[in-house]
Amino acid sequence: MKMRMKTAVSLAALGSALLLAAGASGRAATTVFTDPAGDAGLGPDIRSLSIGDRGGILTFKIVAPGMKFTEGSGVKGTFLFVDLDANKDGKYDYSLFVGDDADGFSWDVTDANGKSLPLSTWMRYFRTADSYWISVSSSDLGGATSFDFFTRTGTITDDGKLAGSDDAPDGGVWSYGMTSVKPVIGTPTTSPLGPVAGKAFTITLPVTRSDSGVKVTIGTMTSDLRVGTQALAHTQSFKNGTAAVHLMVPASARGRVMTVQIAIESEGGSVTRLTRFRVA
User: Fold this and answer.
1) 84 near 98, Cβ under 8 Å?
2) What span, in angstroms and rounded, lies between the C-alpha atoms of 62 and 30?
3) 122-179, pLDDT tens digit by residue?
4) Is 213 left (phi over 0), alpha (psi -120 to 50) or beta?
5) pTM of the model
6) Structural domains in the chain?
């Protein structure tokens, strides 16, 4: 069996970090997916897969008794993997892998071509008893904030045959959407410097991801501009990480306060920013 290996790291240090990221401290929500016990034959038996995210970091915990084997048992190796379909087209884009063979446990995170991803700051692994943790950032997965996924375990005998395997779920796929990655609306810039009654006025605001600070390029924008209770006619655009509104300031608005409310929704996260201007 060909094992996909990562460079060894300090498990003690990583264990604390992964437990925190997974919500062991009670500060991050975790979604648990379960699989029936006893349906793996002679192979490792998937019991559950838990996913939590915090600050754009995903932590997967797989509970699968039977991964560890003894020499002379007729087993060459065991493995488990989690395939992630980041664009939900029915094909996996990334795979999380753990295996055990004569050289001990190994782990890996690969792309759709089976190539190991570069080891990033948050790409980590930890094992204790029958539980296996792997953490990756959303940016490790191409910026994905939601995905479908599928898990499988297996046992390879000394003669290279698959002796037992377990799929979870038993049919179809599971889905997960991150809750810790949201759009952020930055400080607005204006042209001219402030609104003037009877003149054109443009407000632009940068929109970035909360985890990485990169531009948000996918999403929807809504805007509401008012002087008092009077709604103001305007145009809006959201393109390449920039939200903008443009209007002709009514002459009647002189000396009054104009409110500009911008809302952005992107990949399940949303943010609203309210800005006030005194009309000259």
Assistant:
1) no
2) 13
3) 899 999 999 999 999 998 998 888 999 999 999 888 888 887 789 999 989 999 998 8
4) left
5) 0.73
6) 11-177 (2.60.40), 183-278 (2.60.40.1930)
